[in-house]
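tool=predict chain=A
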Amino acid sequence: MGHSATDLRESRILLYYFFTPIADPKAVMLWQRTLCEMLELKGRIIISEHGINGTVGGSLASCKQYVRRTKEFFKGIEFKWSEGGAEDFPRLSVKVRDEIVSFGAPGELKVDEGGVVGGGVHLKPEEVNELVESRDDVVFFDGRNAFEAQIGKFKGAIVPDVETTHDFIAELESGKYDHLKDKPVVTYCTGGIRCEVLSSLMKNRGFEEVYQIDGGIVRYGEKFGDSGLWEGSLYVFDKRMHMEFSSDAATIGQCAVCDRPTNEFYNCGDGDCRKQTLLCEDHAREPWCLEHQPHANVGDSV
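tool=predict ok
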């Protein structure tokens, strides 16, 4: 099949996940790796017995072909398209894991041909707004790592104290959120995958009315931009680090050193540290996390 000049010239990033039983994850991994190498795509794909989760980038032509080929095997899978390309990823990584998103509960999650069993009710973006308008006790519950919410979140959202998704089970079982168990709770995350699992874990722990947003923050932002219930920037796990839904996006993040508005994360200057810190342009000249600040007086100004 021939490709247009645009397809060959332009690049895109694909984001997707699909919960479905996979009998032979290793075989799917080898097929996906071969397909991506042939199409010169870069990114990260994780496969488990519960399904597949991926973010890949490359030429528009290659992305279109990847979508066609992958849909032949995973019937019903949906892809989100985003600006970017292979250059936004350091390499191609295709691996088999116990979970396609790591909550540390592979034995608890149940999946059938219809997806996650016992998860939260799916809401389209407009249904989220309708729920909030019709109920005054709706709670937004952030399903991401806490640092992601520093630059963007749903207005009034609860942001659990978690560094990674592995921390969520202990956080849910801590009792901090027991007062929410009889309230309508809308979980949200970047593209929806983390909330597929999180909403199931919450329901298993007595939260009675749990929802999740179809397509996550990405789909909500595409629908409402910055005129809805979302505020700020969206953290993304590639070289872009963040994205905005419109030119009207608020900057809600604050520099960890001086509190100036910023939405820019920087990797710590200590080579052994993997922390990312919000810094303004001035303090980004020496990007250290607060733990490894080389000058005591800088840390004292926080």
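Confidence is low (pLDDT under 50) at residues 296-302. The chain has three domains: 5-96, 111-243, 265-300.
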